[in-house]
């Protein structure tokens, strides 16, 4: 059986396993993932958090690293936390807004 192709789709699908415990929604549908980069066995995830003082910063970053390290072909994971552009609820997917009770 062949391993799935390591690409952005697989990365984002895998990151849906990582949930912001304060909001109870995954980080992809919250709109926290700004980009991914795959260079050989290294995956870099550029992301933000809902607030700069987020107390779950380290836990969420650890969740990202842990989830991606379980993918075949991933040898190293780097998480870059950025604050520009600032996160806002409009960045959420329809599922994310429905999950947290924000009406559109």
Characterization of this structure:
The chain has 104 residues and is an alpha+beta fold. The chain has one domain (8-96): Fe-S cluster assembly (FSCA) (GMP Synthetase, Chain A, domain 3, 2-Layer Sandwich), CATH 3.30.300.130. 27% of the residues lie in helices and 22% in strands. It is built from 3 helices and 5 strands, in the order αββββαβα. It has helices spanning 8-15, 57-69, 94-100, and strands spanning 19-20, 25-26, 33-39, 42-47, 76-81. The strands form 2 sheets. Strands 3-4-5 form a 3-stranded mixed beta sheet, covered by helices on one side. A two-stranded antiparallel sheet has the order 1-2. Strand 4 (42-47), helix 2 and strand 5 (76-81) form a beta-alpha-beta unit. The N and C termini lie far apart (43 Å). The mean pLDDT is 92.
Summarize the structure.
With 104 residues, the chain is α+β, with helices and mostly antiparallel strands. The protein has helices spanning 8-15, 57-69, 94-100, and strands spanning 19-20, 25-26, 33-39, 42-47, 76-81. The protein has a three-stranded mixed sheet with strand order 3-4-5, covered by helices on one side. It has a two-stranded antiparallel sheet with strand order 1-2.
List keywords for this structure.
104 residues; alpha+beta; GMP Synthetase, Chain A, domain 3; three-stranded mixed β-sheet; two-stranded antiparallel sheet; 5 strands
The number of distinct structural domains comes to 1
Radius of gyration, taken over Cα atoms and rounded to an integer in Å: 14 Å
Q: Count up the helices.
A: 3
Q: Percent of residues in helical segments?
A: 25-40%
State the name of the first-level CATH class.
Alpha Beta
Report the principal-axis shape: globular
Q: What about the largest sheet?
A: 3 strands, mixed
> Helix- and strand-based class?
alpha+beta
Corresponding CATH superfamily: Fe-S cluster assembly (FSCA)
Low-confidence stretches: none
CATH architecture: 2-Layer Sandwich
Rounded mean pLDDT score: 92
User: The CATH topology is what?
Assistant: GMP Synthetase, Chain A, domain 3
Spell out the helices and strands N to C: HEEEEHEH
């Amino acid at each position: 059986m062949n391993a799935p192709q390591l690409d952005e789709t697989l990365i984002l699908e895998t990151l849906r396993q990582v949930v912001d415990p304060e909001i109870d929604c995954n980080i992809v549908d919250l709109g926290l993932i700004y980009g991914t980069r795959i260079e050989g066995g290294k995956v870099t995830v550029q992301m933000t958090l809902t607030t700069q003082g987020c107390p779950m910063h380290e836990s969420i970053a650890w969740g990202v690293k842990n989830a991606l390290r379980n993918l075949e072909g991933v040898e190293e994971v780097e998480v870059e936390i950025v604050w520009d552009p600032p996160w806002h609820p409009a960045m959420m997917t329809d599922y994310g807004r429905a999950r947290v009770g924000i009406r559109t």
